[in-house]
Amino acid sequence: MIVMVNGERREVPAEATVANLVEELSGPPRGVAVAIDGEVVPRGQWAATPLPEGARVEVVAAIQGGSH
Amino acid sequence: MAAQDTHLVIADRQFRSRLMLGTGGFRSHEALADALSTSGAEICTVALRRLDPSARGSILDVLQAASVQILPNTAGCFTARDAVITAQLAREAFETDWIKLEVIGDDRTLLPDAPELLVAAEQLIDEGFIVLPYTTDDPVLARRLEDLGCAAVMPLGSPIGSGMGIRNPYNISIMVERASVPVVLDAGVGTASDGALAMELGCDAVLAASAISRAEDPVAMARAIRLSVEAGWLARAAGRIPRRLYAEASTPEEGLPEFDEQPGAGMTPRGHA
Q1: Which tens digits make up the pLDDT trace of A19-61?
Q2: What is the largest CA-CA distance in chain A?
Q3: Which residues are bridge partners to B224 per DSSP?
Q4: Which among B32, B76, B94 is the nearest to A64, CB-wise?
Q5: ipTM strictly over 0.85?
Q6: Is B100 a catalytic residue?
Q7: Burial of residue B132 (number of CB atoms within 10 Å: 0-12, 13-18, 19+)
Q8: Active-site residue, selected from the candidate residues B19, B21, B38, B100
Q9: pLDDT by residue (tens digit) across B187-223?
């Protein structure tokens, strides 16, 4: 199935969860957060949250940033 | 208790340092770590962006090694909605309720969008965030933000990254006089004297980012601004003399010796101070 991850199409297994996706993208998910279709998914729910087909997923992480 | 012994207190947390460091613009995590250590800062801003799987190391390693309070920001958000979602993401990513709320209204000036800022601040405070809003130097807006329950206000001295210092020191003074939450001068600091002026005006702290990270020698500038913030704080506490248009002699007039005029001598005593 296809989901949009950070603006790019990505093929994932049908039962893939948020936890699976983060693991695949980043390894140890330190300082990472996820939103699906504009709703933040709390870390504690990643393993139990399946990726909906066609979902827009944002996976973000810390970067250096002062202002803007 | 001497004023210089008191700590900066934000939302019941105490800090010895009154200099906050924005982490944007450093060439590397190592450069950031060096400047951070020299700056003595105990609060550091970080931003969130789409995960870059190829990124080397994490800024979190640097900040956690230095045991600083992480202050995530909502840099790059132009609407209250985006800022709220970014804050929620930051809470998940960094496990902190602290958020430096930035809602930008214009691409070129990066000035805050006041109506959106108020909407976002109210919602985030409802959700239990410790909100430190980046705001204009408008004392009325600062008051509104404080009334909503913001933990501090962070007025700009001049536009972000401009290095133009404090363009309206009178507004900052008025803000300081009226605020009952800490006032943190944010944006516009270009060099050490700007940090000193902010503190002399009565600000509780200064945030410096580009002034340090983009200086030719960031570590040296981190030291300079650290010392200037300390100096400004001490000077404010010491109580400066009032400004006067005319001189006021520091040496008493009393007891001044008198010299007889010698006709044709051509010399008279001058200079009293």
Answers
A1: 988 888 876 667 899 999 999 999 999 999 999 988 999 999 8
A2: 40
A3: none
A4: B32
A5: yes
A6: yes
A7: buried
A8: B100
A9: 999 999 999 999 999 999 999 999 999 999 999 999 9
